[in-house]
Here is the input.
Amino acid sequence: MMMEWGGWMVMRIEQVNDQFRDPDLTTFICVCIPEFLSLYETERLVQELARFEIDTHNIIINQVLFEEDAMESKLLQARVRMQQKYIDQFHELYEDFHIIKLPLLPEEVRGTEALRSFAVNLTMPYRPGVEEAETKRIGIARIQELETETASLRAQVLDLQSKLEKQWKGKDLADM
Here is the structure.
């Protein structure tokens, strides 16, 4: 009995590993900030994931100060220049990656509505100075599109899980 359980566990672990290695099923999105240590740690992470054959072709650079938002402060302008140096390095190192820059905000993103509003920046590049209502309007339509697609994919996953369970039950009966 213990041997059967151990064999089942090994098979399950192999299935999970296969799923992690299948870029159609799993991808890793690196989230970082535009500073030296974050760039260094992201590079280590990308190399380690590559060693395990886990897809990672997306990077989110968070807390970016945009020049348009720093016009009135020399300190912020200096920070923009420093961040830009690291953003340029991210683009050089990961030229074949999809890189998204998210803005530094004056407050934390907390709550469902704030999260939905901020999520627009994941589907449409943040553009300083663009009317927020316009960005939200376009972004909400895209979010609704993605939610519909997600619901469809969830239904497919549930169907496949059901088929897999039937296969396992059939295999268990055949083994008896």
